[in-house]
Specification:
The protein is mainly alpha-helical. Helix content is 78%, strand content 3%. It contains four helices and two strands. Strands 1-2 form a two-stranded antiparallel ribbon. Strand 1 and strand 2 form a beta hairpin. The longest helix has 48 residues.
Amino acid sequence: MSVQTGFDVEINLVDALLLLLKREQASLIKVDVDTMEALLNEKAQVLQDLSTATQDRYKTVSSLGFAADEHGLANWLAGQDASTQQSWARFNALVDQAKELNRLNGILINKHFNRNQNVLNTLGRSSSNQFYGPNGQSSSGSGLYNTQA
């Protein structure tokens, strides 16, 4: 596979990831847990495919006599035509969009987590401080019942 073809594959994968991240964001806003859970497997597969494509890119660049890393890729790109350089620039722009969407989704997830934690903390305080004794009267304390009737 050529590096240019690899860029096209990676661009398609990042496009797919962007769609998944947008769907994830919509489900986070709606608090649609079922959709969020379903998206996890899809995202994991796309990320795995993207990782494989990146490794393939480095192998291809290495087979052309360049280092199998970002520095080698940059050296290879310096000698390529405008179309190839534009593909690389498009790929990087899409990756930046994906990073930003992922960051925003992380903020939404943290907000949900904090809200849920506050609710759990509130429930924990109220349930541990209020008990009804055998006489039906509420009492507070660490035991289940107030032994003073």
